[in-house]
Task: structure prediction
Amino acid sequence: MYPKRFWIAFILGILAGVLCALGGNSKVPEHIRTMVFISVILNRAFIGFVIGVSAWRMSWILHGILLGLIGTLPMSVPVIFYQQAGWNAFIIYTVAGIIWGFLIELLTSLAFKAPMKKPES
Result:
């Protein structure tokens, strides 16, 4: 593992979670607002964590998009079955996860200059 990359991606994931949670918090029913707020932060932090520790060898663009999608699905699929959310919430949440995965990878790899390294032999 590359510590600089890990910490940058993880912190960016937490920040993405806070921004995402604050942005959608008013649309969430009040009785589940706190749970959803915390869940969104943890989910985006998880995406940052996975990006930071991943050893998949692929372009950074595909890496961020794919891990954003995979990391978001466990959180977004159950939303389909929640009567007040449904497919619209699923699509919005999943697309947001893909975008955040892309942005976390973009900032980690290019802005903070912490791209994936090849394993040392």
User: Anything to note?
Assistant: The chain has a mean pLDDT of 92. The longest helix spans residues 86-111. The chain is about 70% helix and 0% strand.
